[in-house]
Amino acid sequence: MKDSFNREIDYIRLSVTDRCDLRCTYCMPATGMCFLKKEEVLSLEEILFLVENLAAQGIKKVKITGGEPLTRKDTIPLIKAIKAIQGIEKVTLTTNGIQLDKYASALKTAGLDGINISIDTLDPDEFRKITRVGELERVLNGLRKAVAVELPNIKVNTVARGELTAKEICTIAKFAKESPIHVRFIELMPIGLGKGCPGKTQEELISVLQDNYGVLTPFEQRLGNGPASYFSIPHFKGKIGFISALGHCFCAECDRIRFTADGSLKTCLHMEDGCNVKEALRTENKELLLEQVFTAIQQKPEKHHFLENQGDSRLMSQIGG
């Protein structure tokens, strides 16, 4: 499948729930969230119908997201089932890590090809402040378990909040120094509660890291499905990556579309939904599904418009991280 700018679309980001066991300040309000009802969320069967039909059209990579996908009881069987679909080459997962200690072994058995773990600080008090309810040690235990069971392609994601100190940046980067883990610093996106929050630029982060660890050398190979640019640092076992949608726009290489937990198709993170495919999935109407997907892909914009202050009015957890 190709869009009108000749970009091949072979990757879907698939939110399986809008629920989360954390309440991060840049993502969700502390109270008052109105979550989808169970019957509004796509079922395992509907998701598999979606992926099977898109795999036949060239989709090769699937990222399972949320909310927090490990709060959904059938996420592990879903991963295993998607892995068995002809044409699917990689299935990866993004998680806050709270339940990873419990599920790491099962994820390994299911055949997961990679995992992204969100860790915004290594200060327990600051972690509780950011997440409102989270315990840092649970996430670190999950990361240790992921390493112990040898889950492949482990990445730590850190939102580049304005509050990040040089010490925190260097401490988090040590994951990549001491283990074959890739650490990515993600530019704060102007979505939902993230709008107006101060953030650090890629250049600021690189300056801090070079002052403390030496020259960052661009690493040209791809290390996953996403748009991160990676760098090598002397004596580091892993790489340092940056995902900077605003400061270093990567839209020209965009190869993905998104589906929310209730079946809305998004061709770009900043846009309001183009269509909802839930009816096509629930009636197993392959022709309608593909018509909707093909039409949406042809309407995929050339680039995002975050800098023009346009975008989806929903929270990131409702869209899919």
TrEMBL record:
Function: Catalyzes the cyclization of GTP to (8S)-3',8-cyclo-7,8-dihydroguanosine 5'-triphosphate.
Binding site for [4Fe-4S] cluster 2: C251, C254, C268
Protein name as catalogued: GTP 3',8-cyclase
Highest taxon in the source lineage: Bacteria
HAMAP family, per database record: MoaA_B (MF_01225_B)
Organism: Enterococcus ureilyticus
Originating gene: moaA
Complexes and interactors: Monomer and homodimer.
Cofactor note text: Binds 2 [4Fe-4S] clusters. Binds 1 [4Fe-4S] cluster coordinated with 3 cysteines and an exchangeable S-adenosyl-L-methionine and 1 [4Fe-4S] cluster coordinated with 3 cysteines and the GTP-derived substrate.
